[in-house]
Amino acid sequence: MSVRGHVPGGGPQATDEPDLSTAGPMARSAADLRLMMRALSTFWVEPPRIPDFSRYQAKANYRVCTWFSAPHHEIDQQIAQRFQSFIDKLRAQPGVEVDDAMPADIDPDALFDIAVKLSGRLVSTALNGRQRLTAGLAALGFRLVGKLADVPEGITSYYQGMLKDSGEQRNTDKLRHEYSRVIENLFARYDVLLTPVSPVLAFAHMQQPVRKRKLIVNGEPQDYNEHLFLETC
Question: Where is the Amidase domain positioned along the sequence (predicted)?
């Protein structure tokens, strides 16, 4: 569902469709989806028309791109083994071609940086002047502390995105559109991108502040934002 329209906080011409904006999540489970569809259809004079999916025909051949890690961004071996087992089964299927690397023109770290800045920009639409000043001080503080100590990846960019700096926004939007074209080209070459959305298996919700949370990846503690890195990319 398109959410194209005026972007709060931008100029009069800021009508791009935000990459991180979505009409959802609509459902967490099949039961949620059934409940939602009942609610939507109950008040219609005529039931909504069911889309015709018959035009989507199975293909004779499929090209699959797999991507599991970037430098300094490991995934847990439990995840890797399950994906590798699935990939081995895919390779055995006739008509399936599998490539084991993300194309070189995609920089996952740059893509993650863009995503967290856009996320900060969306959050900032609800901030007042004092809160935005606090975000600016936080961005400066994390940038300075990051030279001496470990800080969550992307946290500085997240706060920078809240500042409504016009130059920063123009640069981020430029990179966003460039990466949109790169992703379009990726799916012109491949039918499916197979990648984990988290470096670890499901874990209990952590109550600590984000900067204090740690994930255990292959027995070693990693920043909690590693959970967001693969999900975002």
Answer: 15-208
